[in-house]
Design brief:
Elements: H1 18-25, E1 41-46, H2 51-64, E2 70-75, H3 80-92, E3 100-104, H4 108-113, E4 117-118, H5 122-131, H6 134-139, E5 141-142, E6 151-152, E7 155-161, E8 163-166, H7 168-175, H8 185-198, E9 205-207, H9 214-226, E10 232-233, E11 236-240, H10 246-264, H11 277-285, E12 289-294, H12 297-307, H13 315-318, H14 322-325, H15 334-344, E13 349-351, E14 366-374, H16 380-390, H17 393-403, H18 416-421, H19 425-432, H20 446-457, H21 465-481
Parallel strand pairs: 1-2, 1-3, 9-12
Antiparallel strand pairs: 3-14, 4-14, 5-6, 7-14, 8-12, 8-13, 10-11
Length: about 475
């Protein structure tokens, strides 16, 4: 499971381009950044969401190093915009006090092209690629102009993927005992429409992230790739592929038709254009929806809020476990969660991300973090050791079991404790494999591209899908060309 705070990794990114960041870094504000370093001290910069886990692991790394180094964690802001801006300023200012940094998965191309990342040594890279799931590894790879081929510029530390969450009791009530869990967006819409026909005031909504921020980019990117399309050519990020061929145009059109349908069917979420991960979770817990697309943090939230008596449809199921669930000093063990989760899933369950067609694999956009060694470090060898320790299998096991952060090491998904604690673990692993991953466009211009795409799509659904294809393609091309970027 992933806590609510972890989902903020997929929220809106900064609107500054790399050039704007460099310009910002040149102003006197940089004087506040430290420019020195202490031998043996490795400064690790980590986001506020996840800093507790990284700090705890850093203490273990320090002990295991036998005095070779001391990893000191500096906490970055909560929001991704602030994190990226602070890191960029320090990197552009050649701050030697920055050794290791936790990076959002969409920053790899920009930071690598700027010369801010130390590539992972080939021998270690081979092991990382072999032991970690394909999707998260791909987010840490990039080919700079001076690289012969793609290479690893960071190490995956944890990942994330959205699932479809649904109400089994609602489907049974309105669609019959033999109702099937939908596997496509069309089926979800049909089910929700039927619920609305029977009870317009019932749980009729499909909750998604439709607000003008990164969540909307994630939604569009997932549906587009599930339809067989891409925003950019995966092999040539300088080429947009939304309308360059009839096949690509058809895929883009189909994705846009789905976004519009989800926002306009009878009983749709009237606030979809203001919906983010938190509001989608809240709407589901209020009993307004039969379906929700969200990150795994919602499972833990439903369990705790149900135990607190704050979710009407879970009061009865969670009441017998309330005291155990709400004991913050001594949380339930993995084994104790088995009967709790079993009851929870009778009213709140999960399934794979919905597809566009039964003939095409459903694909879901990744979230998560990578750990990289900064080119500003004057102790890159020690920094690399710290990065490896923070992302090891043992570290990821703890992040997963104690911090509810999905691991990237494939073998962890087969361990008994993990499988017990993560009933959705097999689905998460499936969606992290290459056939089901929808990577966000890998480009140094990603921030500008995301900003322009989400601005064009918002308010979601209040446009004609056919004409929107070319509008989107035009905005993506502007981002590629460095035009129309919001400073």
């Amino acid at each position: 499971m992933v806590r609510k705070s972890s989902t903020k990794r997929c929220r809106a990114r900064t609107r500054l381009t790399a050039a704007a960041v460099a310009a910002a870094a040149a102003v006197p504000l940089l004087a506040a950044c430290g420019s020195g370093y202490s031998p043996g001290v490795i400064n690790v910069y980590a986001p506020a969401d996840g800093a507790d886990q990284i700090t705890a692991r850093a203490a273990i790394c320090n002990k295991e190093s036998g005095g070779a180094y001391r990893a000191a964690v500096t906490i970055l802001p909560k929001d991704a915009d602030g994190q990226r801006l602070q890191l960029a300023r320090r990197l552009a200012g050649n701050d030697h006090g920055l050794d290791v940094m936790a990076m959002d998965v969409v920053w790899t191309a920009e930071f690598a092209n700027a010369g801010w990342l130390v590539p992972v040594p080939d021998a270690e890279a081979e092991q990382v690629i072999e032991n970690n799931l394909a999707g998260p590894v791909e987010t840490a790879m990039w080919k700079r102009p001076d690289d012969a081929e793609k290479r690893l510029y960071a190490l995956p530390i944890w990942t994330n993927t959205e699932l479809m969450w649904y109400r089994p009791d609602v489907l049974k009530k309105f669609l019959g005992r033999k109702s099937q869990v939908p596997v496509t967006w069309d089926q979800m819409i049909e089910n929700a429409t039927e619920i609305h026909r029977q009870d317009p005031k019932g749980p009729t909504q499909i909750l998604v992230q439709g607000s003008q921020y990164e969540g909307l980019m994630v939604w569009f990117n997932s549906v587009l790739q599930s339809a067989g399309g891409h925003i950019l050519d995966p092999d040539d990020p300088s080429k947009q592929t939304l309308n360059d061929t009839p096949e690509h145009r058809a895929a883009t059109l189909r994705a846009l038709q789905i976004l519009k349908a989800v926002s306009t069917y009878p009983g749709a979420d009237p606030s979809i254009s203001n919906s983010d991960e938190g509001s989608a979770r809240d709407g589901m817990e209020r009993g307004e929806a039969a379906f929700e697309i969200n990150w795994p943090f919602v499972f833990d939230s439903a369990r705790k809020n149900g135990a607190s008596g704050n979710i009407d449809f879970l009061k009865t199921e969670m009441a017998p476990f309330a005291k155990r669930i709400l004991d913050e000093e001594n949380p339930p063990t993995a084994a104790e969660l088995v009967p709790i989760n079993r009851e929870l899933r009778t009213r709140f369950d999960f399934a794979l991300y919905p597809g566009v067609s039964k003939d095409l694999p459903a694909k879901s956009t990744l979230g998560g973090l990578n750990i990289a060694v900064a080119s500003t470090s004057r102790q890159p060898e020690l920094a690399a050791k710290v990065a490896s320790c923070l992302t090891s299998k043992d570290a990821q096991r703890v992040y997963a079991l104690e911090g509810a952060l999905p691991p990237t090491v494939a073998s962890l998904y087969d361990e008994k404790d993990f499988k017990v604690a993560y009933p959705m673990g097999d689905d998460i692993r499936t969606q992290l494999e290459a056939d089901h991953v929808a990577p966000r466009p890998a480009t140094p211009q990603y921030q500008a591209m995301s900003t322009l795409v989400t601005a064009t799509l918002s308010p979601v659904g209040r446009w004609d899908p056919a004409s929107m294809v070319d509008k989107l393609a035009e905005q993506v091309q502007k981002a590629i060309d460095g035009e129309g970027i919001i400073p």
